[in-house]
Amino acid sequence: MRQSISLNREWSFHGPTGGVETVNVPHTWNAIDGQDGGNDYWRGTCTYEKQFPLPAFNPETHVVYLEFQGVNASADVTLNGQPVVHHDGGYSTFRAEITALLQENNHLEVKVDNSVNDRVYPQKADFTFYGGIYRDVSLIIVSRAHFDLDHFGGPGLRITPTVEGKTGKVQVQSWANVDCPQVAVTITDAEGNTVAQGRGTDVTLDIPNVHLWDGVEDPYLYTATLQLLEGGKAVDQISSRFGVRTFSVDPKKGFFLNGRHYPLHGVSRHQDRKGLGNALTREHHREDMELIREIGANTVRLAHYQHDQYFYDLCDEYGMVVWAEIPYISEHLPNGRENSISQMKELIIQNYNHPCIVTWGLSNEITISTKQKKDMLDNHRVLNDLCHQLDATRPTTLACYAMCGPFNRSAHISDLVSWNLYLGWYVPGLFLNDLWMSFFHMVYPNRCLGFSEYGAEGMPNLHSSKPRREDHTEEYQALYHEYMLKCFQRHPYLWATHVWNMFDFAADARDQGGEPGMNHKGLVTFDRKIKKDSFYIYKAHWSRDPFVHICSRRYVDRPESTTTVKIYSNQPKVSLYANGKLVGESSGQDHIFTFQIPLEGEVKLEAVAGQCRDSCSIRKVDVPNPEYKLRKGMNKSQNWV
Questions:
Q1: Which of 101, 363, 421, 526 could form a disulfide linkage to 328, CB 3.0–4.6 angstroms apart?
Q2: CB proximity list for 498: less than 8 A, separation 6 or greater
Q3: Answer CATH for 261-455+472-504+521-540 from 3.20.170.40, 3.30.70.920, 3.30.1850.10, 3.20.20.80
Q4: How many whole angstroms separate alpha carbon 161 and alpha carbon 314?
Q5: From residue 181, how far is each of 201, 205, 235, 396 by CA, in Å?
Q6: Which among 7, 150, 127 has a CA at the least distance from the CA of 500?
Q7: 634 falls in which pLDDT band (50, 70, 90)?
Q8: Handedness of CA 471, 473, 476, 477 (dihedral sign)
């Protein structure tokens, strides 16, 4: 059967400065300098080299493939001085067969380029374009007769489940590199029991009394295992997990999963973190998922590109409904059509089997700086048709930005549509969010509308008793999200809402809040160490796990004589104690509990809600702490464009 050999360790890296160092992949050369506002943010071509011995295999019966799961953004691969493959697109898997080029000792060279060009997406966007081999590299040894490894990095099989009554009808299609392949298909349940078997490259099998994949409540997964037979003997084997579910979207009622109303509320996610860039391990991906689960989200927009296969697997396992998209973003490139098409093919072909994915995203904020409007619209139509050709089971969507009005033609090409609106942050007036949603729904009552991005900058070192727009305080960010949660309750027809963003992320074009090269709209800091207050207002609304949280805990030094203590909890009542004495008990409203307390000296606060407790200390000071204020010279809420 197949054998995979990791090539992750001990690469010679020729970096931007001309020096050579030994690195392990995942690796990026922008792990740190992408976070300094662009002063040292280097984009260009670097070279990775690796020596490896001839793997043990029989060349008469087997072949060897080289697989890269992510190289940003373009890669030229040579082996022993011979060209192997060129790949454009930094977020997807690509492979090449290298059997004929192998020697006793092998020299692998990968030239990686993330420089500016006019043909490979993305080129303009509010996030850092990390260069490097930032996902796993491996050799795959497989029988000469094998399931497909050459079609857009796909797995060689496609699973399409439908539901008829209590029966799951599962179509399993596969492709192999031999004429008239003989394929045995076995479906097992989550406990490993065989529930269906069949033969053929396109076979539909029945699962009686099917157990549905039912979101975060019950993300049940089956496994399809396929064997390629020659003379009755299996020469290759592949498998894929899948879930059986139905879903639909109604313009007046929102999202439905397995026939029941299932409002989608969640977050968007970028794949980078402090000091590592986008070179994440599985442990990092799992930590991200645990934080998303803790907040109580049931959907994730995986922006703005194809994410690691492991993270889609986690979304399958934990029941997250996913919006998946390509980095066709911010600017249409007249020379980039071929690349937008190839990245969409890779996204769908590589991810088709994931039950978590319910929609394919065509583009994001594409009208920001696009001049070639006719060509851009045509490219969208091509991509929309391509999605439907490759996948008839999922609708398409796209994300428009604020200045793209409701009547813009690009907003009416996809099956669904969402808007990135920061009303109340970049412009004053939180109430404008209600007006905008109501207006769109009035004009287009049969168009499914969502909110794909909304948020406000919030830095855990900046604080105010009187927070206001543009001050970057943790307090204003929390007020903003308090409003938006109530706003969405007033507009239940939205098909999905996604906070921007779950985590702070690097954005080299920004210079705000005293920390250049960063976007601070995350509910959690870039290093994943601090959950901002905004994290807890969502947890209060979405999570069933009991908790209580005292807000503004990092606002320690307070000049006021009487201060407001705000508490978030999903429990019905909260009691507050100051220096051990009961201040009062509150039933709160919308999971928010407020208390007024006199402030003198240092005060230890303790909040009690059922069995849950939280504590912190604050103190009275004579003058405001200047470290809590956005200082002169720090840019405020100016956007990146």
A1: 363
A2: 266, 267, 268, 299, 300, 301, 323, 418, 450, 451, 452, 453
A3: 3.20.20.80
A4: 20
A5: 7, 18, 11, 33
A6: 127
A7: low
A8: positive
Q: Both tokens of residue 380?
A: 């969208």
For residue 234, give the nearest of 346, 110, 146 by alpha carbon: 146
Task: Print burial letters for 23-35: b (CB count within 10 Å at least 16), e (below 16).
Answer: bebbbbbbbbbbb
What's the CA gap between 640 and 236, in Å, rounded?
50
First to last CA, the chain: 51
Using CA atoms, how far apart are residues 367 and 440, in angstroms rounded to an integer? Answer: 18
Helices within 187-298 (DSSP H only): 282-295
Cα–Cα distance measured from residue 423 to residue 469, given in angstroms and rounded to the nearest whole number: 10
pLDDT digits (tens, 9 = 90+) for 119-154: 999 999 999 999 999 999 999 999 999 999 999 999
* Cα–Cα distance for residue pair 304/320, rounded to 1 Å: 17
Among 325, 365, 474, 606, the active-site one is 365
Residue pLDDT, tens place only, 225-251: 999 999 999 999 999 999 999 999 999
Distance between CA atoms of residues 555 and 473, nearest Å: 10
Give the phi and the psi of residue 219 in degrees, each rounded to 5.
-85, 70
Residues 520/513, Cβ–Cβ less than 8 Å: yes
Strand order of the sheet with strand 137-143?
3-6, 137-143, 62-68, 94-97
Does 365 participate in catalysis according to the annotation? yes
Closest CA relative to residue 277, chosen from 638, 531, 518, 17: 518
The CATH number of domain 557-627 is 3.30.470.20: no
Is the pLDDT confidence value at 35 over 90?
A: no
The label of the residue with tokens 């011979």 reads 82
